[in-house]
Amino acid sequence: MKLPVVKKQRTLATETWRRFKKNKLALTGMIVLSSLVLIALSTIVIDLATDNAVYNNYVIKQNLRMRLQGPSKDHIFGLDEFGRDIFMRMIWAVRYSLFMGTIAIALSTIAGGLLGAIAGYYGKVTDNAIMRFMDVLLAIPSMLLATAIVAALGTSLTNVLIAIAISYVPTFARTVRASVLTIKDQEFIEAARAMGASDSRIIFKYILPNSMAPLIVQATLGVAGAILSIAGLSFLGLGIQPPTPEWGSMLSSARAYIREGWHITVIPGLGIMITILALNVMGDGLRDALDPRLKN
Amino acid sequence: MGKYILRRLVMMIPVLFGVTFIVFFIMSLTPGDPAAIILGDQASGEALALKRIELGLDKPLLVRYATYMGNLLRGDLGLSYRNQIPVAGQVWDKFPNTAMLAVAGIIVALIIGIPVGILSAKKQYTFMDNSSMVLSLVGVSMPNFWLGLLLSLLFALKLGWLPSQGMGQGFFPLLRSLVLPALTLGTGVAATVVRMTRSSMLEVIRQDYIATARAKGITEKQVTNKHMLKNALIPIVTAVGLQFGHLLGGAMLTETIFSWPGLGRLMVDSITSKDIPMVLGSVIFMAVMFSFVNLLVDILYAFLDPRIKSQYGGPAKRRKGVVA
Questions:
Q1: Cα distance between residue B103 and residue B111, in whole Å
Q2: Pick from B73, B107, B123: which residue ends a domain?
Q3: Of A139, A258, A277, which has the smallest distance from its Cβ to B149's Cβ?
Q4: Same domain, B46 and B112
Q5: Which of B15, B27, B324 is closest, CB to CB, to A174?
Q6: Which of A188, B34, B48, B234 gives 20 to 30 Å between its CA and that of B87?
């Protein structure tokens, strides 16, 4: 008699990956995103290696005689209102959108996650105090809250980060609280408590790892939202300031020259859209892969 | 039902106090001396000191907040730093324009979103469904200010069909000037509505009572409109309501692009000129409006879903299914 082949037990990560890679759209999103991360990292390396020479000579160098020239062989995306190469600016702008969006969401995931876990775990007064505060923050539309914070604190990279991070905290607090509530009464938590585990050990070791799935999905989609907010703030002149290349601020300055060259309006927006699209399809794919029951 | 509305209204009071306090606190962090902004660089130290006392800046934050709230409840939002006109008047002046834009945006979203969503669900996995899903993904991923620029590039500058700046006077000019901003604001929401409608229709479509309805021999149109859509509508209402906040945020960008004289643009202009009372007033106003719209959505939701209404007939229970 042939014995059945014993399969190695799959972890959640390998199981998720197995399902995720079947989704071609999500996989494409991931590839696009990885390439963007690679681009961003290589521009940083280039800046460090050449002591900003490339940045100074190609990204922010003005050439007024050639201003607003359309796409050509030498400049595939054309030149902007100061005669700067749009292709180079697009490439150098990737890092701001991608990394600032990621950092902002990382901050709010940590803050919101902790608040949500504490609220859900302890319940009662603690829960009420934290969640009513979150309700208040949620009652202000996030873009409005971010704008108000930047308006008060002034426009700088850090302030934009803080503004966007704060405006996303309630979303994560709610997500984590909801999953903590479903987990905390399960038997393995009771077992841990019976064995004398402390509250913080239970939260960090047992509850949070088990409520990761919705958090990861929410964070991926959150980065997309954060990138849009950063671009929006920059478009209003409240985010990243010129001459630093950033997609939103490139669009903002293109607005004045919309009659003179279509390419300066179309191209930066395409950059934003492709990034957001990649994040969205990846987020959707992750959700389906992490929890197949949600798929319809 | 009346009890439910009353309860929700009472619950809103602390939230509104919280919202106003947070916004007040944030704006109080603004660096720079308001007295100097009002009086200019030439003012003497004495005049500045007097102005600061007049503005109440010598008092602690909580006292200033209490004064502000006292005035707010009487409909007074203070004076603009820039031109000393009452903020409340300005805000009331601009609000109808923003509301009009938001409503037009929602209408665009519903006109596009619901029919496309229904068709997608009824013809699931066909070419039509797949392409509308791809388009709606593109729609949610597109920054709305970029869409606004593209629309004005095409329809205003290249084709010259519609105005790209300002608000028209008179009915038809107004309608014409509303088209591009409303499309800009509504497209992103439309994409969300398509996805919501599709998934909630799909949930309904496989229910037994739909088979029963068909077996009774009523027309497919009636099945769709009466049996499917009515039940599928509930989550759509919530989704649209929740989008209202996005619309207010998006209104800032859309109004800036199209020079639409609304609250968002007032706010952006005031930020640029460091007119704190104006920023404070418009943010508070928008946040309060947002809270009211959310309340309205919840009430509408209770009307649409008899199960929720009946819950409030007996002892108040937690409602299911409302997850933000």
A1: 12
A2: B73
A3: A258
A4: no
A5: B324
A6: B48
pLDDT tens track for B295-305: 888 787 777 77
The residue ranges of chain A whose pLDDT is under 70 are: 1-9, 292-296
Domain harbouring B107, CATH code:
1.10.3720.10
Q: Say whether A228 and B140 touch across the interface (CB within 8 A).
A: no
Instruction: Work out how many domains chain B is built from and give that number.
Output: 2
Q: What residues does A79 pair with on adjacent strands?
A: A85
More confident residue, B316 or A28: A28
SS3 state of residue A85: strand
B105-130 pLDDT, tens digit per residue, is 999 999 999 999 988 988 888 888 88
Answer yes or no: do A139 and B138 touch at CB < 8 A: no
pTM metric for this prediction: 0.85
The distance of A73 to chain B (nearest Cα, Å) reads: 25
* Within a domain: B28: yes
Residue A266 with chain B: CB contacts under 8 Å: 150, 153
Please give the residue range of the domain that contains residue A188.
17-64+74-290
A237: CATH? 1.10.3720.10
pLDDT given at position A152? 86
- Same domain, yes or no: B155 and B210: yes
Rounded-to-integer distance, Cα A251 and Cα A269, Å: 7
* Residue B46: pLDDT over 50: yes
Boundary of a domain, candidates B45, B73, B101: B73
State the smallest CA–CA distance between residue A5 and chain B in angstroms: 37
**Per-residue CA distances from A61 to A85, A262, B67, B214 (Å):** 9, 21, 52, 69
Contact residues on chain B for A135, CB-CB shorter than 8 A: 15, 18
Which structural domain, as residue segments, surrounds residue B221? 87-311
Distance, in Å, from the CA atom of A29 to the CA atom of B254, rounded to the nearest integer, reads 28
- pLDDT tens profile A150-164: 888 888 888 889 999
Number of domains composing chain A: 1
Residue B191 predicted with pLDDT over 70: yes
End-to-end CA distance of chain B: 23
